[in-house]
Write a structure and sequence with these properties.
alpha+beta, Archaeosine Trna-guanine Transglycosylase, Chain: A, domain 4, six-stranded mixed β-sheet, 3 helices, binds zinc ion
């Protein structure tokens, strides 16, 4: 498992499943599970942007926290068309001058895990990976609200 630190409110938009592109300065060959960490710095100018509003940005939401791991995703692909000045289909969340890290299978953590972040792609401490994995498997095992009896 690798991790990226993302400023709020963008980390929230990822964790809530709206933003499936992470704009990065560099490409990566890494594919696999990516921990989404909300960094301590907040992009205050973006909190009122239309995109963030459509994501339902709410400072009272636990996923709006800072300095914590808040979600897990799969890094499925990296699109570098924009840095070559080419068109791509990455949608409204993709910046013009960035590599588009395409995220799939985004799962918000049931509660944030306070941790330090770093720049770029970073390796989470084993204790953090263990905590995230335990949280997600406990959630899978628990019955979900609205689940009816098994289909016959
Ligand atoms: Zn793209």
């Amino acid at each position: 498992m690798q991790a990226i630190s993302v400023r709020q409110p963008w980390a929230f938009a990822i964790a809530r499943g709206h933003k499936r592109i992470s704009n990065q300065n560099l490409p990566t060959a890494y594919r696999g599970t990516l921990l989404i960490h909300a960094s301590m710095r907040v992009d205050l100018d973006s909190c009122d942007s239309p995109l963030i509003r459509t994501a339902g940005w709410d400072v009272r939401d636990p996923l709006a926290t800072i300095g914590a791991a808040i979600a897990v995703a799969e890094l499925a692909d990296v699109c570098s068309a924009a840095v070559r000045d080419e068109e791509c289909g990455c949608g409204p969340w993709a910046d013009r001058d960035a590599h588009h890290w395409r995220l799939a299978d985004i799962r918000a953590l049931p509660r944030p895990i306070v941790s330090l972040g770093r720049l770029g792609l970073w390796q989470p401490l084993p204790s953090l990976v263990t905590e995230v994995t335990a949280m997600l498997s406990a959630e899978r095992a628990a019955p979900r609200l609205g689940d009816g009896p098994p289909a016959r």
